[in-house]
Model the fold of this input.
Amino acid sequence: MTKADAPDLSAHIERGLTDLRDLVALQSVSAQGRMLPETADAVTALLEAEDFTVARYPGQVAPVLVAEAGSGPFTLLIYNHYDVQPEDPLELWDTPPFELTERDGRLYGRGASDDKGEFVSRLAGLRALRERHGGRLPLKVKWLLEGEEEVGSPSLEAFVRDHADELQADGVWWEFGSVTPEGRPILYAGLKGIVCLELRCRVAASDLHSSTGAVVDNPLWRLAKAVASLRDDTGRVTIPGFHDDVRPASEADLEAIARLPGHGEALYSAYEVTRPLGTPEDHHTRLNLMPVLNVNGFHGGYGDGGSKTVLPAEGFVKIDFRLVPDQNPDRIVQLLRAHLDTQGLQDVDIVELESHQHPARSDLNHPFVQTAVRVAREVYGQDAILNPSSGGSGPMHPFMEYVGAPVIALGIGNVAGRVHAPNENVLRRDFETGVQYALAFMDALGDAKAEAPTGR
Done:
């Protein structure tokens, strides 16, 4: 299918943009508990208008919605979330954050991309699919929407585990994806896991005069020693046992990485990076397949103007690990504790922060993944960029673990989308093509002549 052959979806696109405008106006900020039940109500109404049966379950922060409609040889489970990040700092927005505003081909507003725009584009495509098939859906569609993703999805893993029978599907369409400036779709077949921690050290009940540094140890020195012991200059984590469980990359993974364009030049240029890690040739391998340790912040002592000759009583460092299959977050914390003890750093405490996420990666040769790639090529008119994994993290693992289905991420984000930042946006062009993709993808899955899925 070329863009010239694309069906006229203008009415569905305009209706989708109206839906998006209404949803953006709902300030569903999960970090602050704002308008979450109201937004769940609005999402429920949109789904019920398309003949979905919607079940609502309580979550720790916001309701979890499970919807179902249609019938056919394939069951597709779609995952989205209806919560958004806080709008702060408000003064950096060019237009009101909770009013969808179109400017120079971009649609601005909190949630325009992450994740209300993604949800609405898929819903608009589903409407077009129903219209194409005389009011029915040629496949069964299940939809799970949560309102806690932006605070770490604390309810989701247990929910998916406990409702696995209800959520059974042949494939899962993940909540995000992106398109290059040239209009080339980027797909992801996995996510890295994540462990967020604080390392804390205290040496006294209060700060001391720095002259006592001759006889009192310094918590920032202790923390610096701890951090320096965790990785080498190449970025490889040096904790004994850390890499023992890393799953070897498959031949399909390596072939996909070899086809990825460039060597990170756009990233390094956009952020004026002065110290890239690794070589240009291993850029994509590191992003997709390499576990990583990051230092997010180093805190303690005096940091204002001039000097203050003080020996701080305490300090802390925020770190995160990005993990790959089959690393277990709990085991990583245990290995870290053992390593610090071996280094003589028993007084450095480990504080676990947000919920851990396990890594997940689908088989790139699975027919579901290959259908997503093929349809992307047809709709966008260019070969898709297929990544075995995103460098980021999210709650994908429970779907693969308990539902037993492959997962693929393809969506409507863009490199200048400013997700989580002021002036979040999506290109109208990408929204429109996303509606077209949703129609074509679900239509292909519902085709009884399509290759049957395997590996469930």
User: Anything to note?
Assistant: The mean pLDDT is 95. The longest helix spans residues 428-446.
